[in-house]
Amino acid sequence: MLAPDPAPDEVTSRYLRHSNQYAASNGRVKPHALHPAPADHKTSVFRVQGLTESEIWSLGDEHVRNPSGSELRARAELLVSQILGVGLQVEPQEPPQRHANIAGWPAEKDEWMLKRRSWQKWRPFDYEPRQRPDRGRSG
């Protein structure tokens, strides 16, 4: 069971639905993949501490892929300490189960772009590509 308040060493996952959200060549998440939603200035993440890789992908399939119909291509893992380190917060927001928002983004786009840049300089984000079974292609 997760604590009500995320601990600094807790892992969160941001599911990536578009190939332009990450660079497969260097294994990094592109900054705009973490942009807050225009409507509420929050970035949706899931608290994945203690889950297996398979359970993490199942969580995304159920709550991100199925409602939107978009394929999940990859996911970004972010420690809560990374988020807190740039002055943002992680706010649990269920349902769905394990959902949270990165909150505290400035209202002005120019300001949150600056915050995002400092975040990226502080620690680049690795991503986990979705593993696909071999579909019979020969290399």
3D architecture notes:
This protein is an alpha+beta fold and 139 residues long. The protein has one domain (11-128). It has three helices and eight strands; from the N terminus they run ββββαβαββαβ. The strands form two sheets. The chain has a six-stranded antiparallel beta sheet with strand order 6-7-4-1-5-8. The protein has a two-stranded antiparallel ribbon with strand order 2-3. A hairpin with a 6-residue loop joins strand 6 and strand 7 (99-103). The N and C termini lie far apart (44 Å).
Q: How many structurally independent domains?
A: 1
| 3D shape | globular
Rounded radius of gyration (Å): 15 Å
- Total beta strand runs: 8
User: Termini, distance in Å?
Assistant: 44 Å
Low-confidence region ranges: 132-139
How large a portion of the residues is in β-strands, by DSSP E?
Answer: 15-25%
Structural class: alpha+beta
Count of helical stretches: 3
What is the residue-averaged pLDDT? 80
Residue share in helix: 25-40%
Largest sheet: spatial strand order: 6-7-4-1-5-8
Major beta sheet summary: 6 strands, antiparallel
Characteristic key phrases:
139 residues; alpha+beta; six-stranded antiparallel sheet; 8 strands; globular
Give a quick precis of the structure:
The chain has helices at 53-68, 80-84, 109-122, and strands at 11-16, 22-23, 28-29, 43-47, 74-79, 89-92, 99-103, 127-129. By secondary structure, it is α+β, with helices and mostly antiparallel strands.
Topology, element by element:
Elements: E1 11-16, E2 22-23, E3 28-29, E4 43-47, H1 53-68, E5 74-79, H2 80-84, E6 89-92, E7 99-103, H3 109-122, E8 127-129
Antiparallel strand pairs: 1-4, 1-5, 2-3, 4-7, 5-8, 6-7
